[in-house]
Amino acid sequence: MMKKDEQIKKIFEDYGDDLQANESLSCKARLAMAASDGKRSSLSSEKHSRKILVWITPVCAILIVAAVLFGLPVFGGNSNVLPDNAGNNFLQSNVEYYSAVDVKGKAVRFEECNSVLKLDSINKNGEFQIVSADCYAFYSDSDEFVYYKLFLGVRSADGTFTELKIVAEKDGFVYADFAEIYREANKNDQNLLYADYDESGEYVTHAFFAARNFHFYVWGRNGQPSSDVEKIIKNLLD
Amino acid sequence: MTEQDRQCINDCIVKISKGDSLALEELSRLVSGRMLSVAVSVVGSKSIAEEVVQDAFVRIYQNAARFRSGSNGYAWICKITQNVALNRLRSERNGMSVNIDEVFYLAADDNVEEQSITAVTVRDAMKCCTVFERRVIYQKYFMDITVRDSAKILGRSRSAVARAIASGERKIKNYLNGGTNLPPDVL
After folding, report:
1. B172 touches chain A (CB under 8 A)
2. Structure pTM?
């Protein structure tokens, strides 16, 4: 290897050291590992089960908590928040699974997403305002629309800020990583899976629901469990 | 990144090959930020880069058994990430060929406001370099890739890569030592 110049080496080292780790980026690999036979056999040991509690990923947590939550009332037992189409077999059994390499994305205007997804409903009661939006549309190789990915900043009337990441997938398509969530919801005919978990000290609320010929995967964080994220999701659903 | 971190990365890869999920968690803590930078350097978008890193971790898991424990695990991970990113870019361009030495992003185009001071320093220092020089300098200093491997990845001769590195280093040092940051065709 060529000798490195110390001065240049230092600026790159400083840059590298400043980059923040994002442990959720290995979720897919951890799920793949957990899906292997060896992993499954190790799950039977109590010792390993304890370890799992330590390194379980947010997605794994979602799956487990979601499974626990099935059959339980959501949003504090208020079943009225379920949309009209709940229990109407809103999810499809014949879907096309795809992975990240099967789609290509491009930035789109918020107005385009809003016209399709009715995101303005977040502000239905004047409680919330969308103050920032990064929107992307993803298409298959045959240029068929597959999903929107949105990063929204939502400010509540009391000034609280909530970050939302939303993947709105067109019905008929399912991202392979989300297949478990999708199948669980389908199996139980449940239009809202919902879970809170802690990620690096921040509370993240995750929800899955179907509406407007799309199914939504929502991740929201605002420093507190549930809180505004629940209300925002409820507004989106109504 | 300390030598201890590098050794830890190698240990993690070996453990991952044996199905140790704790090691995957530890590896993620050590390198996910850097992997994201490598992915962004190719695809230019944070959201797409995050998906690339997810896929790269799967690739690392799938190929961990083939990793030679005495080699540079960090560089191995960076190369995997870069390859996955390149594949993604090709996929986005409908299978058209992509020359990695023709693209280089230090920051995601959808995440400019989150750049750290150190990122801005590196970005500004590399402004005077050509895209090819940026790529080889980044591979050498950030990804720990040897000239031989760089040449192989980029499809160039070793001497061409070595010349580009030397030229890029000269320009960056000139900038860091207070010289003028002139465009590449002037320096």
Report:
1. yes
2. 0.53
